[in-house]
Specification:
There is one protein chain. Helix 1 packs across helix 6. Strands 1, 2, 3, 4, 5 and 6 form a six-stranded parallel beta sheet that branches. A two-stranded antiparallel ribbon has the order 7-8. It is about 40% helix and about 20% strand. The radius of gyration is 15 Å and the shape is globular. It has about 170 residues and is α/β, with parallel strands linked by helices. The protein has one domain: 3-Layer(aba) Sandwich (Rossmann fold), CATH 3.40.50.
Length: about 170
């Protein structure tokens, strides 16, 4: 099972739109996947709600797709809080990760993906080498808040195909 993590808690974010594109593509391929929104799930406090997130999304996943924006040259604190609150060995050890950074700027959160890669490797995860930076995310084509930019969708599909055999 693959868990797609929309790595921000900002309402209506472009991150969520990109993460939902991953979810739709995997569903179209009939791949078992779940969508974890940090906007709509409690991950900043270790409580019963967080235990549900662990049991439903984190522990059963063998692979993760993390889609996250650039926050101050790195990755969002809410994503770090989710990891810090989790049982790292049960949730992340010896699992695989695919990273996609999104940003309004031209670098697509390259620095944040590099920082996050170091954290994931420290947690004994294997990170796929094709980390996708999506730049100028706010200028991509969307129809009813669904990503419709064909070039970006093609790159995402290619990245997913690589990850499925990884």
């Amino acid at each position: 099972m693959i868990t797609i993590v929309s790595g921000t808690n900002r309402p209506g974010s472009n991150t969520s739109k990109i993460a939902k594109a991953y979810f739709q593509i995997l569903n179209d391929l009939q791949i078992d996947c779940k969508f974890l929104s940090l906007e709509t799930n409690t991950v900043h406090t270790k409580n019963a709600d967080f235990e549900r997130v662990e049991n439903e999304f984190l522990i059963p996943a063998q692979k993760f797709i993390f889609v996250f924006p650039e926050y101050n040259g790195s990755f969002p604190g809410i994503l770090k809080l989710m990891i810090d609150n989790s049982d790292v060995s049960m949730c992340f050890h010896n699992k695989k990760a695919l990273l996609t950074g999104v940003a309004a700027g031209r670098a697509g959160n390259l620095r944040g993906m590099e920082h996050f890669t170091g954290s994931l490797m420290h947690m004994k995860m294997t990170v796929h080498p094709n980390r996708l930076p999506i730049s100028l995310v706010h200028k991509l084509s969307y129809v009813d808040d669904v990503l419709s930019d064909e070039v970006t969708l093609d790159v995402i599909k290619s990245q997913i195909q690589e990850f499925l055999t990884f």
